[in-house]
Amino acid sequence: MEFTEEKLARIWLQSAPMGAWNKINALKEKYGGALGVWNHFSPGLYDSLGESAYAMLADLKRTRCREITRALEQLSAKVLFFGERSYPLGLSAIDHAPDVLFLRGTLPAPHAPAIAIVGSRRSTRYGSTQARRIARELAEKGVTIVSGLARGIDSAAHLGALDAGGKTIAVLGCGLSVNYPPENKELAEKIIESGGAIVSELAPSAPPLSHHFPVRNRIISGLSDGVLLIEAQERSGTHSTINYALNQGREVFALPGNVDAPGSELPLKLLKEGASICTCGEDIFLTMGWETQKETLFDFFPDTNPDEALQSQEEKDPILIALAKEEKNLEELLQETGIPIQDLNFQLTMLEMNGRIERRPGRAYALSRP
Fold it and tell me: What is the pLDDT of residues 175-216, one digit of tens each?
């Protein structure tokens, strides 16, 4: 893997510890860019950079970044440089965009729609199910799903996109050579095999340090047209993604949840402050102004009127059929529909949120009044 001296210098500085980036940016400004720092690099910069950053840069310069370029070759990774046509268009417009981005896989076309789906690593079954469903609905319509490959909501979002045969981008808080979390190694490979991408601004071997993740969140929102928050407590690290999205002029969506659930704290707070509510993929399409003609949304009902198709689908719902004549409690619905308890609870929640049924005292349910 060959690079010009100027590009090699940019990779070199991008690979320094994240904690030294402010000092490095000051040196780039002083010496007119990465190549200037490369040419002026000497023990005289020890005090300006600090011990660890200076030692790492000295070693990388001595070997001309051989360890990094070798790792990139082994990963079949690409290097994207700010200002070049291959660099993501949306990302190039944000404050503090990465000068260098390391990439495995394929990024979508420059103007392809993209939505970030983020939330808690300790997601509930409800949160993970909704994240996966909404991601699938969006991906089915050609929207790229962006997330962080973390446990919980991130993983569910990536899986939803893959369920639809769609594209998804994972933005790492570590290097491309590092499998983190380890259980998502296979998921990362599936993302690439499905035409998506894994990206990082960190050197290939960079570890998943805690301070990497809030900073990488600006890339998640920067690659997206909007950000959907599924579950998070108010003091969650996910809050940084929302702040970046707002500062970058991205649309912010939130999924409502139970008012007494810890994971509903931040979504409900955002909804009170004016975030757009999202209970399905179509909510995002309508808010974003993307084309959502009924014939497209219901194209799996061939030669059928869309409104009739929706009505037909609802008429076949075993829960709605069971409630057609009178209200029933949970035990009665379990016996009459034969739906497993976990799925039944989820479907009841969705029907209630969509206004199709209402909850009555004693954990009973009935069709909503007209």
Answer: 999 999 999 999 999 999 999 999 999 999 999 999 999 999
pTM of the shown model: 0.77
Buried b (16+ CB within 10 A) or exposed e, 174-196: bbbbbebeeebeebbeebbebeb
Task: Kindly state the average pLDDT of the residues 72-100.
Answer: 94
User: For the segment 11-52, what is each residue's pLDDT rounded down to a tens digit?
Assistant: 999 999 999 999 999 999 999 999 999 999 999 999 999 999
* pLDDT for 357: 87
Measured from the Cβ of residue 351, the count of other Cβ atoms closer than 10 Å reads 20
